[in-house]
Here is the input.
Amino acid sequence: MQYKEQIRKLIQKIPVSLIDFSLPRDMVQIPTQASSNFITNREQGDGAENLITQAINKTLQNYTVSCYELVVF
Here is the structure.
């Protein structure tokens, strides 16, 4: 069985209440530059890191999280 056929069979098992694959969807936009994907992932990662840092610093009194960033000159 080919990979695509395995995916089709798996999709058929997903309930329509979770996701309806028959509904039309917007076309996926390809990043305009090679760095676009990196920038998006970096921003999401930085946001998640900040959220975790704040949560740990607020709740754990004996610990402090400090963030660092590598800077290359």
